[in-house]
Amino acid sequence: MNEVLQAMLERRSCRNYRTEMPPKETLEAVIQAGLYAASGRGRQGAIVVAVTDRAARDRLMEANAAVMGQPDMDPFYGAPAVLVVLADRSVPTGVYDASLVMGNLMLAAHALGLGSCWIHRAKEEFETESWKAFLREHGVEGDYEGVGHCALGYPAGSLPAPPARKPGRVFWVE
Fold first, then answer.
1. Domains of the chain (ranges, CATH numbers)
2. What is the tens place of the pLDDT at every residue in 26-39?
3. Which residues pair with 48 in a beta bridge?
4. Over 144-167, what HEC string results?
């Protein structure tokens, strides 16, 4: 089977990570794949903020857990790296485009032996002034909407088997 199709069928969300940080070159390869996702009219309005600093990652974790209403949980499941994907609000297809970036990030991570999981609540986090300031502190200018966090790292253990696909989700118009 084609490698890309195989990766699509095999990739699963990882919810248990080793503490070891993947090499920066591997993270860069995952990010590059994400940035090659399709975008409406080729606008490329989605950006990625790679959070590998442990203190910043933990701050983000605490903010995410607070939005979720579970302050004692790690919503990133121990992943050492978090790739935050944001959409330029001035691009009409920004959220859709950023969603495609998320998909590419997760497939690339799988292809490179990493685990990944899409973690929500980026929208709520990056609507706050403190996280908008965080973006500005790290060189991000503009008006962005949080779309997702890609928790990333080496899986600690095996990934789950794929669940059966729900029937009745394809309709042919021939």
1. 3-153 (3.40.109.10)
2. 999 999 999 999 99
3. 85
4. EEEEEEEEEECECCCCCCCCCCCC
Extract long-range pairs of 19-26: CB within 8 Å, 24+ residues apart.
19/78, 19/80, 19/153, 20/80, 20/153, 20/154, 21/52, 21/80, 21/81, 21/153, 22/80, 22/81, 22/114, 22/152, 22/153, 22/154, 24/52, 26/112, 26/114
8-state DSSP, 112: T
- Predicted model pTM: 0.96
Percent of the chain residues topping a pLDDT of 90: 97
Q: What are the tokens at 122? A: 């980026």
Q: How far is CA 62 from the centre of its chain?
A: 17
- The pLDDT score that the predictor gives to residue 160 is 87
Task: Tell me the per-residue pLDDT of 115-159, one tens digit each, with 9 for 90 and over.
Answer: 999 999 999 999 999 999 999 999 999 999 999 999 999 999 998
Burial class of residue 126 (count of CB atoms within 10 Å of its CB; 0-12, 13-18, 19+): buried
Q: Are 146 and 82 a contacting pair, CB within 8 Å?
A: no
